[in-house]
Amino acid sequence: MISEQINNLNQYFKDKKVVIAFSGGIDSTVLLEFALQSAKEVLAVTVKSSLVPMDEMDFAVRYLQSRDIPYRLLQVNPLDHPNVAKNDIKRCYYCKRLIFESIIDETKEFKPDIIVEGSNISDLSDYRPGMEAVKELSIKSPFLELNISKKEIRGLSKIMSLEISEKPATTCLATRIPYGQEITEERLKKIELAESIIKEILPISVLRVRDHKEIARIEVLEEDMMKIMKSDHRNLIREKLKQLDFSYITLDLGGYKQGSMNINIEGVKDD
Fold this sequence. Notes:
alpha/beta; Rossmann fold
């Protein structure tokens, strides 16, 4: 199976001029590495936005620079779009549409044969309105077309000896705010800072701080819950997050769950 996927991905990019929407996550990194092996020419585009944690954007740029990969750093502010800031259930659609329209415009002179992004079949289990925008703009999703899952992508990354093979998945900061509540630069910075503070206190790989206005709801993997609950850690986290003007600091007993903000949307189940 793996050898077939390797062959299919190499064939997918063979002799093409390719633009990669590159976030520095495992999905876009594996796509980038296959494109570098097989494509005629490759250009990576990394988006700088208030919705992307700064350390993730910095990681992406360092990766590209360390490999001398041609890239563009594209500044996009999705909050300029009123429907993104309003944060209704199609927020991701408006955001993805704005970002990929910007990438298309930015790379016109490169004249790519294809522009690709890293969605995979495991993403289909969650509510992803942004995929509609991807399809409308004819952005390619090789992992979806080739029926490749997240687990298989990790397997490919290990075979390729990529440094990001164990890198946890990340999502944009807007996913920390409930639908219907306005997204502002201030809230995004507050969430990013809260997560940075917790990671400085504890070595936690998967972490989300959901911002329910006065309540900070912390999601971690089940095995990390007891780290948070140790009195010295718990008290320090509580003290630091209260300084960010959260009135109540809570730990979600359900643990981290992909798409936990989507459970009240029709058709999305809370497992």
